[in-house]
Amino acid sequence: MSVSVQADDFDVGAEIAKLSRDDPDVGAVASFVGLVRRGNDGGAEVTAMTLEHYPGMTERALQDIVAEAGGRWQCDHVRVIHRFGMLRPGDRIVFVGVASRHRGDAFAACEFIMDFLKTRAPFWKREETTAGARWVEARDSDDTAALRWDAAPHRAAEPPMG
Amino acid sequence: MTIKILYFAALRDALGTAGESLALPPGVNSVGELRRFLAGRGEPWQVLGADRNVRAARNQRMADAGESIAAGDEVAFFPPVTGG
Questions:
Q1: Of A124, A133, A123, A139, whose CA–CA distance to A47 is shortest?
Q2: Residues 6+ apart with CB under 8 A from A150
Q3: CA distance A26 to chain B (A)
Q4: Are A34 and B84 an interchain contact pair (Cβ–Cβ within 8 Å)?
Q5: What domains can be seen in chain B, in order of their start residue?
Q6: Can you give the pTM of this predicted structure?
Q7: Each residue of B31-59: pLDDT tens digit?
């Protein structure tokens, strides 16, 4: 289980490869990459974005989320990377990768970690747009996405092999 | 009985400060009571008012309004998070 909060970019292929290296029991790796979007749902064009975070709390919050996922699904290896600082459209923001025996656990844990990261990890986006700078408002849909896991079974149903 | 308070993102911009040390006033024993006390300072502190969407952390973990605070704590106030 490894969490990084960093300004630097990351190598998606290398991170995915590391998740199953030297572990022949891993049968599935699910991953997610979040990127800076140019448009913001009908608003002005985004030219840059600055991600602020709460040093000290951020890594702890991510570790707590990963631990929670590990209690719900079989997660053999987990990697979370979240960047901060100035980013531009097309830049990678976040990586979540989960290695497990079977895909059901890997898919579910990966999505769970992203949903909880969206509502619990102390990051804030400030967009520079063609119409000026502004702090991004939180979305109700992110809260809804995190809440649905409260009703979900803690273990994936017996998944098909593979 | 002093605590450290931090403000982040749009809240910090509105308040014009990233944080402060505060000797806890009598009757301020929880995160919610601290928020109410701060909001009562007048402009621009109404951004911490009960009608605003503000989240809090105590000692670097998300905290509800009812969570107790004690000397030496680090309490942070910030808008709902927007990472990912």
A1: A133
A2: none
A3: 26
A4: yes
A5: 2-78 (3.10.20.30)
A6: 0.91
A7: 999 999 999 999 999 999 999 999 999 99
Task: Give the pLDDT band (50/70/90) at residue A157.
Answer: very low
Phi, psi of A134 (to 5 degrees): -160, 150
Establish if A113 touches chain B: CB-CB under 8 angstroms. Answer: no
3-state per-residue secondary structure call for chain A? CEEEEECCCCCHHHHHHHHHCCCCCCCEEEEEEEECCCCCCCCCCEEEEEEEECCCHHHHHHHHHHHHHHHHCCCCEEEEEEECEEECCCCEEEEEEEEECCHHHHHHHHHHHHHHHHHHCCEEEEEEECCEEEECCCCHHHHHHHHHHHHCCCCCCCCCCC
Q: Complex ipTM, two decimals?
A: 0.95
List the single residue in B53, B79, B83 with the smallest CB-CB distance to A121. Answer: B83
Q: Rounded distance, CA A6 to CA A12, Å?
A: 15
Chain B interface with A: residues with Cβ < 8 Å: 6, 8-10, 13, 53, 57, 60-62, 76, 78-84
**Bridge-based pairing state of the strands A46-53 and A123-129:** antiparallel
Nearest-angstrom CA–CA distance, A117 and A139? 13
Secondary structure E strands in B1-84: 2-7, 19-23, 55-58, 61-63, 74-78
Query: Amino acid letter at A1?
Result: M
| A119 contacts on B by Cβ (under 8 Å) | 80-81
Distance CA A40, CA A38 (A): 7
